[in-house]
Amino acid sequence: MRITLATLAVAAVATLGTAASSTAATTNNWYWTPGACKSQLQSYGVQINDGRWFNVAKAFCVGYYNHCWVSNGVRRYKVFATVMRSRDGVVRAMQMTVTGKHSWSGGKMKIIEPYMSLGDFNYRYGSAAWAVAVDQNEGGCFDIHP
Questions:
Q1: Number of domains the chain contains
Q2: Do 93 and 110 touch, CB atoms closer than 8 A?
Q3: Residue 22 is part of which domain span?
Q4: What are phi and psi of 124, to 5 degrees?
Q5: How far apart are CA 3 and CA 76, in angstroms?
Q6: CA separation for the pair 69, 53 (Å, rounded)
Q7: CA distances (Å), 55 to each of 63, 73, 80, 137, in order?
Q8: pLDDT tens-digit profile of 30-47?
Q9: For an engineered disulfide with 61, which of 11, 37, 97, 142 has Cβ 3.0 to 4.6 Å away?
Q10: Burial level of 1, CB count in 10 A (0-12/13-18/19+)?
């Protein structure tokens, strides 16, 4: 069975809201590595549409190959599939779009597990993120950097 981006975020899915966001959007001339995406989520957390925040204890980010740019041999992306575990064990997934050097917007956020231990999260979603990233890397980079 071929692993897709949907595999990363699909389980028993309940909708949390329609969007999540970070800082205000700016001109989108920025592309991040998956590590930068992970760092942003784990360092600053996520604000939900209704104004509440949650702290991200662990995150995995996989960039979409059709929103990719290669710079100095490094693949960078402006759109990511993300899966995050908050400090209280809730696992959420969302799509993240880079909007600036230190800003992004998120959407399609869903709770995929009401509680999961950190060990289980790393085992289940770490390997899935790696497999999806390998699959996406085979697709090349099809976006043109502005």
A1: 1
A2: yes
A3: 13-138
A4: -75, -50
A5: 21
A6: 31
A7: 22, 32, 19, 29
A8: 999 999 999 999 999 998
A9: 37
A10: exposed
